[in-house]
Amino acid sequence: MNTEHLSETLLSTGKEDDRLESLARNLLVELGEDPDRDGLERTPRRVAESLRFLTKGYQEDVDQVLNGALYEVAHDEMIIVRDIEVFSLCEHHLLPFFGKCHVAYIPSRKVIGLSKIARLVDVFARRLQVQERLTTQVAQVLMEKINPLGVGVVMEAQHLCMIMRGVQKQNSVAVTSAMLGVFRDKKQTRDEFLSLVGRTG
């Protein structure tokens, strides 16, 4: 099943809930398990509910999440929200990756409610993802919605597809960044951000 088809399945409701549960049941059979044995009887339903929660970002609208939480403020210094917890599913293996996201921007005329930044990260994290795209999406949407002088996003995550399988490197951390506006154009701004989030330029 390709990613697009799975995404459509996860978005479905009503009778389609039973379809996702049936897919989970069939998966257990293909793995050599008995889905009717004690301990697995309710697993297909749990898997369906879990996948729907972990991919609920497909059903969320950015504008509704931000909900007009933009405010005219005479502030032109860097604003940073550090250590936003991130949990997502790798689109290549459907295994989790998790870590922290640091977001900064320099407003031009408007600021956004701080909690909305964390919620915005969740909108895109609760989808089948790759870390690189997730990092860029957060930066681009903030740039589009609040039109700041610049946006910087740094994400650090551990990927179970590397830890549990494949190269099995237990302590590896992937770091991605997206720098837009003055964060891309001005080294001093970029270095200040990286320093404040504990990263060297």
Q: Which helices and strands occur, and which strands form pairs?
A:
Layout: H1 3-11, H2 15-30, H3 43-54, H4 62-66, E1 70-72, E2 79-90, E3 96-106, E4 110-112, H5 114-125, E5 128-129, H6 131-146, E6 150-159, H7 160-163, E7 174-181, H8 182-185, H9 187-196
Helix pairs in contact: 2-3, 5-6
Give structural notes:
The chain has 9 helices and 7 strands. With about 200 residues, the protein is of the alpha+beta class. It has 2 domains: about 5-55, GTP Cyclohydrolase I, Chain A, domain 1 (Orthogonal Bundle); about 65-195, GTP cyclohydrolase I, C-terminal domain/NADPH-dependent 7-cyano-7-deazaguanine reductase, N-terminal domain (GTP Cyclohydrolase I, domain 2, 2-Layer Sandwich). The strands form 2 sheets. It has a 5-stranded mixed sheet, with helices on both faces. The model has no long low-confidence stretch (mean pLDDT about 90).
Mean pLDDT: 90
- Major sheet: order of its strands? 5-2-3-6-7
Q: Please name the fourth-level CATH homologous superfamily of the largest domain.
A: GTP cyclohydrolase I, C-terminal domain/NADPH-dependent 7-cyano-7-deazaguanine reductase, N-terminal domain
User: What is the CATH level 1 assignment of the largest domain?
Assistant: Alpha Beta
Structural class: alpha+beta
Domain count, please report it: 2
Tell me what portion of residues adopts beta-strand conformation. Answer: 15-25%
The level of helicity is 40-55%
The CATH topology of the largest domain corresponds to: GTP Cyclohydrolase I, domain 2
**CA(first)-CA(last) distance:** 41 Å
Secondary structure tally, helices: 9
Report the radius of gyration as a whole number of Å.
20 Å
Low-confidence runs (pLDDT<50, min 5 residues)? none
**Name of the CATH architecture of the largest domain:** 2-Layer Sandwich
Largest sheet: 5 strands, mixed
Shape assignment: elongated
